[in-house]
What we know:
The chain has a single domain, classed as Gcn5-related N-acetyltransferase (GNAT) (Aminopeptidase, 3-Layer(aba) Sandwich). It is built from 2 helices and 8 strands, in the order βββββαβαββ. The chain has helices at 79-94, 114-119, and strands at residues 8-16, 22-31, 36-44, 49-58, 61-69, 98-103, 123-126, 132-137. The longest helix has 16 residues, at 79-94. The radius of gyration is 16 Å and the shape is globular.
Amino acid sequence: MDNIPENKLIIKEGFVTKDGRPFSIIKEEIPRSWLTVYNFIVKDCQSQEIGFLRCSVEKEKAFLNNIQVEEESYLNQGVGHMLITEFENDLREMGVSHISGKYYPEGIGGSLSESFYKRHGYEVVCYDQGDWEVQKTLDLENFKNHKVEENEFGES
């Protein structure tokens, strides 16, 4: 039997929405024998969950399972940007260079829009069978240039 480390929780505070509301990102690391599952959970100042990102990492590849801002009043407030930026920075720190994930066209399952992914450097691909995917290769060489300030919202 593999010796699997215990789950870890890391809380990052000090994030602020465009309209000034504070929020935190809680990163849960769940090691498995062949990969690690990560949950990034966004909570407001009353500890209400307002969004999340779920992914799994195996060697140099990450699979983005889902990213969602659930609370409507937090849409277009920079929460999704900070969530995906924290996720990508953590991957860079781990030496993970490739991200792929299932993409559902806007309106299905609360998926973020295609423009959100493109604005963050993702390619949105549709395969012959009608399956959609997002893909991105991270620049590990210039990681320090990718550090984000707390209120940088990445708008175009």
